[in-house]
Amino acid sequence: MTAAEAEVLGELRRLRARIPQVTGALAASTDGLVLARDTADADAAEGVAALTAAALGVALRLTDATGQGGFRELLVRGEHGYVATYAAGGSAVLTLLAEPRINVGRLHLEARRSSARIGELVDGALHRRTPQSEPRPAPAPSTTAASLPTRQAIPPLPSHKPKEA
Amino acid sequence: MANTETALKEATTVIDGALGAALVDYSSGMALGTIGGGKDLDLTVAAAGNTDVVRAKVRTMEMLGLKEEIEDILITLGTQYHLIRLLKSRGSNGLFLYLALDKQRANLAMARHQLRKIEAELDV
């Protein structure tokens, strides 16, 4: 997924350039692996990706249990800033760290746009890859994502179509 | 005393040429309420974008050493006026009213006057 990876990274950088108060951006798979990151600290990014997957598992069950449909986004506010996670297509998420003074309205606007784009890139790359091999089997239950009905968990956005190479 | 919904409704019915209005929290950039708008005027986008306008002005005044408060901000477009009015009453700090007007139909002096009145009566 290298070509797509570079494009995802480009999208993360553009997003950070548009909103300076975003202090870190990363795209991760729903099972907690970093796909691309624009953060100061690589190790921290891996930790955040793994924690995102864990939080996502709870968020998915919560939206499901309360009948709110598929997962869209998750916003956590701490004393010193925000952590926001947005669904990006069917198998990835966009996680952002932001300063406490950020304009959350604008964060949502920009991040929703970016996550849709990243979703297209990631889903497109997966579709291109799968034809040779068997369609990916359901992921082996891992500790973080054990309860995720992974692939169908995040319904594709209406506009989403697999990109032709 | 009017609540958010009534105040916004009043802003768009009483003020001539009103296209849409929003009550916005500029600490977060999110709208507490919106009325009107449509596909030509997305009030969620307007709330987030004008939050940056207000913040920039507040910061500029700090840098200039002006110990004043912003009463309102007027933006004049080719066919519209956009009016931003910061709320002053106790408990509603950090909020502004945003009003988009059709330039042809609006009376700016009257609109400002009416918006001031609506703000004074608004209780969030």
Short characterization:
Chain B: This is Secreted protein. The complex is a heterodimer of chains A (165) and B (124). Helix content of chain A is 43%, strand content 21%.
As an assembly, this protein is heterodimer
Name of the CATH architecture of chain B: 2-Layer Sandwich
Number of strands of chain B: 5
Query: How confident is the prediction overall: mean pLDDT of chain B?
Result: 93
What is the class of chain B in the CATH system? Alpha Beta
Q: Return residue spans of chain A where pLDDT drops below 50 for at least 5 consecutive residues.
A: 134-152, 159-165
Chain pair with largest interface: A-B, 8 and 14 residues
CATH topology of chain B: Beta-Lactamase
Strand percent estimate of chain B: 25-35%
Rg from Cα of chain A = 15 Å
Find the structural class of chain B using helix and strand composition. alpha+beta
Mean pLDDT of chain A: 83
Give the tally of structural domains of chain B: 1
What's the helix count of chain B?
3
Fill in the CATH topology of chain A. Answer: Beta-Lactamase
CATH-defined superfamily of chain B: Dynein light chain 2a, cytoplasmic
CA distance, first residue to last residue of chain B: 9 Å
Word description of this protein:
Chain B: This is Secreted protein. The complex is a heterodimer of chains A (about 160) and B (about 120). With about 160 residues, chain A is α+β, with helices and mostly antiparallel strands. Chain A is built from four helices and five strands, in the order H-E-E-H-E-E-E-H-H. Chain A has a five-stranded antiparallel β-sheet, with helices on both faces. In chain A, helix 1 packs antiparallel against helix 3 (about 105-130). With about 120 residues, chain B is α+β, with helices and mostly antiparallel strands. Helices cover about 40% and strands about 30% of the residues of chain B. Chain B has three helices and five strands; from the N terminus they run αββαβββα. In chain B, a hairpin with a 4-residue loop joins strand 1 (about 20-25) and strand 2. Chain B is globular. Classes of the chains: A alpha+beta (about 160), B alpha+beta (about 120). The interface of A and B includes residues 104, 106 and 107 of A.
